[in-house]
Design goal:
heterodimer; A: 173 residues; alpha+beta; four-stranded antiparallel sheet; 20% strand; B: 773 residues; alpha/beta; six-stranded mixed sheet; five-stranded parallel sheet; 13 strands; 51% helix
């Protein structure tokens, strides 16, 4: 504004609006990153629950199979079978009974009561020493065909101890 | 002590004695001694007590006491008579120094009973003060009013006021007599004119006062003429610098009433007629200047700029002459030793009388009387007579350096049209005589003239177009009009360059009148040819960011005519912008360059590389600012030109941070960025919608979205879930099989909240269909 003038000109208004637009545009990616971080929290939380439940299962009496050798729950299909980005809300929701109908998730007492973004899968193999399992979360948040993968894996070493084979594996975050 | 003439020295005792007496005195406040004595005589003759004062300061001493009346002059040396008139609420009479004087009229309007002349005093003063007066002053026949010759102030006062009026160029108060033309002042002359019995002699044409030997009318007229020539235009017409057009017209009408030679009798003396014609021409010239706003502004600038020190600071340094004249003004005027020749101005550009006016206040040089005579000739502009005198003097004294210097001064005056000649002659004169006052005056005049020109050219502000821009715009308009055949491009550019200072008297203001004056004199010129380019030029005002004044001859065009004329000057699309942009570039490519000659503007194409001095290298900063300014002008031209090409319009203008083009660009970028960001983040989906018709499913699906080998459908009617399981499986199986043909192997069905209702996975082993409770 020039000295001696009152108010602001249309040019100045337009400039201000433009600058605001630019600021918003710059802020949007930040908002997206924040959302993704929240989704990663969902993944980490659910994988941790499955992972801990799996360890508990192994050390409990339930882990003792017919051959007297301890084992992890059997592998399961991915649930749900279709990625959640195809849902009208871009998030899936499965009822408790749906989770309970799957024996492995039932054995792990795993269910998600809130809408979620990822598909979950449990894989295991072996008995006794060398037995291992992997809890996995798969997601395609924007449905662009690139699946993000989060995995945690643990195995039984020679001392019958449960050890995490590697830190959380992340692909296409 | 006798009260009366001698009261001024011992006022109060006399006044006290009068007040203690029976009657109250009448206060006489008149500056002119003769008029004051006449008033006193009238009062004394009527046996009325009085007190008298020559000015307001002394008159104020009497205001506290009772007064019977007031006789006051219409002009007083130390203030406005109206002040005392307002304070004294007694019968008052104004003593007019001149018939019908404006000052007297205004005083009557302020409350005085009448305005009387000296001749009326014996008969009418007392009766008027006693309330027995008759006709108001306006009804008094002018022929019966005799001019009152006001007392001539002392010589030092006159010199000081004239010097102030001439040098400070301010209106001079009317404190000196101006003789009235005889046909308006004397009833005797009227009789002569009416009868025509005897030719009007010079004696008969004098005013009544002159007939009594008080004034030599011819000499008075010459003196008045000399005074008017040296006074400024405002003073000539008795105006203030703030006067409006109506006041100027009225003032000139009054002036014409007084000095129009046509009002002289047919048999009037030829010399007097010539003198009055000249006086009338002075007034006419003043009127012509003041009534024209452009010329008036130019005149105002010429008054304020060079000498006074008020207004814009002058670039002329103080010279020895300035010191000499200022010193002289403080002293007294020297007696005139040389005979003053008759005035005949020989030049308007170098008006010697005005030029050397200040020299009248210098002490005369102790030199040969013949030299003094020659100097007198020079100072009134009679260069030829001065030359003759110098020839005679140099025959006797060939080595007289003063005379040699004056020879060059005379040569300079004779070569007044060519500045270079004047400059060289002045230099030679100062070589011969470094203290030659006339040469110093000319030197100062040259410096002032140069400073004035430079001021017009150099006063640029950011945003104003440069001289080249203005000139090229004019040339461009002319090149696309019929005037192209009348004025060549090169000649036009040279003329514009030479007259630019006259055209741009005020920065940011282009006056086309000087150009018009030049064009008028060109063979083949016609108004019809000149109107279109000038109107076109005027239409470029926003583009050039300069106010353009059309010539007065075009001033009465209607808006429609103006638009039509401007449109008829068809400058090609974007030509103005292109020309201005080319002109504004600091490093302009040469004409012989490899650039496309066809695309160059006409102004540039035909540029003759005129002979001119190589300009001093421009500092980088100035060059950049000039370039930026020029580009801004060019950009503004682009914005103002509706016919500019898209490519030209898309060029972002440099210059101010906040200009329309920049903000538009910024807004567009910001909007695109925002929309793009929002769309990509929130609206854009990588999924593809599969048309429901292509599925031909019986399941009440609302939509099906696909991503890769997966698809998700939204169930519109949840009642379908309560159908038989085999039925549902069958329908779902049909759907997955159809989708399988599209490369989709997994299908899930959702409700609108995202809850997974069912899924179908096609594999080699068959379709796995699952419903979620």
């Amino acid at each position: 504004m020039r000295s001696g003038q009152r108010g602001i000109s249309s040019l100045e208004v337009a400039t201000g609006v433009s600058l605001c637009c630019i600021l918003v545009s710059v802020a949007i990616p930040g908002y997206v990153r924040m959302n993704r971080a929240a989704r990663r929290n969902e993944v980490a939380d659910n994988l941790r629950r499955m992972y801990d439940a799996s360890l508990a299962y192994y050390t409990s009496e339930r882990g003792r199979g017919t051959g007297q050798a301890r084992q992890f729950p059997a592998s399961t299909r991915i649930a749900p079978v279709v990625k959640c980005c195809l849902s009208p809300t871009e998030r899936c929701l499965l009822g408790r009974s749906a989770w309970a109908n799957e024996p492995t998730f039932n054995a792990l007492a795993f269910s998600i009561d809130e809408p979620f973004y990822f598909q979950y899968q449990y894989e295991s193999q072996g008995q006794g020493v060398g037995a291992n399992f992997t809890v996995r979360a798969l997601g395609d948040l924007n449905c662009d065909g690139k699946m993000s993968t989060y995995e945690r894996t643990a195995s039984v070493d020679a001392s019958q101890n449960l050890v995490e084979t590697r830190p959380m594996f992340i692909k296409n975050e | 002590m006798k009260c009366g003439e001698n009261m001024l020295t011992n006022i109060l005792p006399c006044y006290t004695r009068i007040v203690a007496g029976v009657s109250q005195p009448i206060l006489v406040v008149v500056a002119d001694k003769g008029a004051r004595m006449a008033a006193i005589a009238a009062l004394r003759g009527a046996g009325r007590p009085f007190v008298a004062a020559a000015d307001l300061e002394r008159a104020r001493q009497f205001l506290s006491g009772p007064l019977a009346g007031l006789v006051i002059g219409d002009t007083l040396p130390d203030g406005d008579p109206a002040d005392i008139l307002r304070k004294v609420r007694v019968p008052s009479v104004v003593l007019a120094h001149q018939p019908g004087a404006q000052a007297a009229r205004s005083l009557v309007a302020s409350g005085a009973l009448r305005a009387l002349s000296v001749a009326q005093l014996p008969n009418e003063l007392v009766s008027t003060l006693d309330g027995k007066g008759e006709s108001p002053p306006d009804e008094q026949p002018q022929e019966e009013i005799i001019v009152v010759e006001a007392e001539e102030p002392d010589a030092a006062t006159v010199r000081a006021e004239r010097a102030e009026a001439i040098t400070a160029r301010t209106p001079l108060p009317k404190n000196r007599p101006i003789a009235e033309p005889v046909h308006r002042t004397t009833s005797a002359n009227k009789t002569n004119d009416a009868t025509g019995a005897e030719p009007a002699s010079s004696e008969a044409r004098r005013p009544a006062s002159a007939q009594h030997g008080e004034v030599d009318l011819a000499a008075t007229l010459c003196e008045e003429l000399d005074f008017l020539k040296r006074a400024n235009h405002y003073r000539v017409l008795k105006l203030t610098p703030e006067a409006n057009e109506f006041e100027i017209s009225d003032a000139f009408q009054r002036f014409a009433d007084e000095w129009d030679p046509a009002r002289l009798p047919a048999d009037a003396d030829a010399g007097m007629r010539a003198t009055m014609s000249e006086m009338y021409s002075v007034g006419r010239n003043a009127f012509d200047v003041l009534i024209n706003p452009i010329r008036r502004e130019q005149y105002r600038l010429s008054l304020t700029a060079p000498v006074t020190g008020s207004g814009p600071p002058s670039t002329v340094p103080a010279t020895r002459l300035s010191l000499l004249t200022s010193r002289a003004r403080a002293g007294t005027r020297p007696p005139e030793t040389a005979a003053k020749p008759t005035f005949e101005p020989t030049s308007k550009d170098l008006d010697a009388t005005e030029l050397f006016a200040d020299l009248d206040f210098l002490e005369p040089l102790p030199e040969d009387p013949r030299l003094q005579q020659i100097r007198a000739y020079i100072r009134v502009g009679q260069a030829e007579q001065a030359q003759e005198g110098l020839d005679a003097l140099l025959e006797d004294e060939p080595q007289n350096e003063h005379a040699l210097a004056l020879v060059h001064v005379v040569e300079a005056l004779l070569g007044k049209e060519r500045t270079q000649v004047v400059k060289k002659e002045v230099e030679k004169a100062l070589e011969a005589d470094p203290d030659c006052p006339e040469a110093l005056v000319l030197q100062e005049h040259l410096a002032e003239r140069r400073a004035n020109k430079l001021r017009g050219i150099l006063q640029h502000q950011p945003g104003w177009p440069s001289r080249r821009v203005v000139i090229e715009a004019i040339v461009l308009a002319f090149n696309h009009s019929a005037l192209r055949d009348v004025v060549g491009t090169d000649a036009l550019r040279m003329v514009l360059t030479g007259r630019y200072a006259d055209m741009v008297q005020q920065p940011g203001h282009l006056d086309l009148q000087p150009l018009w004056e030049i064009l008028k004199s060109q063979p083949g010129f016609s108004v019809d040819k000149a109107q279109p380019p000038l109107c076109r030029l005027k239409s470029w005002e926003p583009a050039l960011q300069i106010t353009i004044d059309l010539p007065a001859e075009l001033g009465r065009l209607t808006r429609a005519d103006f638009d039509r004329l401007a449109f008829s000057c068809a400058v090609p699309e974007g030509k103005l912008y292109e020309t201005l942009r080319q002109v504004s570039l600091p490093d302009r490519p040469s004409h012989g360059g490899s650039g496309p000659q066809r695309s160059a503007p006409i102004a540039q194409r035909s540029a003759p590389a005129p002979r001119r001095q190589t300009p001093a290298p421009m500092p980088a900063q100035r060059a950049q600012s000039a370039a930026a300014r020029g580009k801004a002008v060019a950009a503004a031209a682009l914005a103002a030109s509706p016919r500019a090409s898209r490519r030209e319009r898309n060029k972002a203008p440099p210059g101010n941070l906040l200009n329309v083009r920049r903000v538009q660009t910024l807004m567009a970028a910001a909007a695109a960025l925002l929309v793009g960001s929002v769309y990509l983040t929130f609206l854009f989906k990588h999924t593809k919608t599969i048309p429901l018709k292509s599925i031909q499913a019986d399941i009440p699906l609302v939509s099906i979205e696909r991503s890769g080998d997966m698809a998700g459908g939204v169930l519109g009617d949840l009642g379908w879930l309560y159908r038989d399981l085999p039925f549902k499986k069958k329908q779902l199986d049909e759907v997955i099989r159809v989708l399988e043909t599209k490369g989709i192997t997994r299908f899930a069905m959702y409700d609108v909240t995202g809850r997974v209702l069912a899924s179908a996975v096609a594999s080699d082993e068959g379709t796995v269909i699952e419903f979620y409770p």
